[in-house]
Amino acid sequence: MAPLDSARRWQGNRSRHLAVLLTTIAAALVVLPGVALAAPAAQQLAAADQALLDGVRLAGLWEMPAGQMAAEKGQSRAVREVGAEIARQHEELDRLTVEAANKLGATIPANPTAEQQGWLDEMKNANGARFDQIFVTRLRVAHGKIFPVIGAVRASTRNDVVRELANAANTFVGDHMDMLESTGLVRYAELPPAALPAPGNDGLLAAASANTGPQIGVSNTVIWAIFLGALGTGGFLTYRMFRRS
User: Fold this and answer.
1) In whole angstroms, what is the distance from residue 128 CA to residue 90 CA?
2) How many domains, in total, are found in the chain?
3) In a shared domain, residues 163 and 233
4) Fewer CB within 10 Å, N side or C side of the chain?
5) Do 181 and 243 sit in the same domain of this protein?
6) Quick one: 88 and 183 in the same domain?
């Protein structure tokens, strides 16, 4: 083989080895600790934030028709007035929830749950004083369950849109509990106890307080292992390249 061809072949091999080395080191630098790994917008929404969107949306999907029903068939004037106002306010809160979900690119429920639909059916089949009692009891219990969740998410969310929605929902739900209690039909002794999380509990309130959610990333140990492995590979290729030279 001619000296010129041999030199060109050697130069070509050296260039290829150098390219592999640079590519390997670049790949290692991409995953260095401290470099953010961007996640799609839908994956960046924390679990607690999504839970708030879902909970407020579901509340509106059954409490709006429940309030409308109370406005039409409530036996007492208080129940009729409270029902009409709750339906009106939930329409506004539902609009805010849909707007927030659209801004965040989040998917929210379109129909009430089977349990909530069962409550609506229960009200449809009731009349007079029995209807009034069912309406007040069902809505008061439901508001009592969502109220602490709203507060927990409001206290911990990192998302401005969710924080704004939580502020609005907190005001609406507090007002609704006051209105329901003004009917004189709330049976306080029968209300469920507060669902406070025990130490180490991973329930909804605990998750809301921690604002945990899907995390896109790799632990530092894994990152450094990949980085050092890449450097080792690069060093070995460099050694072979210059040894051949």
Assistant:
1) 24
2) 2
3) no
4) N
5) no
6) yes
CA distance 64 to 85: 10
Same domain as 106, residue 70: yes
User: Encoding tokens for residue 86?
Assistant: 């709750």
Buried b (16+ CB within 10 A) or exposed e, 56-73: bbbbbbbbbbbbbbbbeb
For residue 133, the model assigns a pLDDT of 97
Comparing C-alpha atoms, which of 115, 120, 118, 142 is closest to residue 131? 120
Q: Domain of 230?
A: 217-245
Instruction: Note the pLDDT tens digit of each residue in 181-226.
Output: 999 999 999 898 876 655 555 555 555 555 554 443 444 444 445 4
Residues 162 and 63 in one domain: yes
Measured CA to CA, the distance from residue 42 to residue 39 in angstroms comes to 8
Q: In whole numbers, what is the pLDDT of the chain averaged over residues? A: 78
Say what the pTM is. Answer: 0.65
109 part of a folded domain: yes
pLDDT one-digit tens code per residue, 232-243: 555 555 445 545
Structure tokens at 236: 């070995």
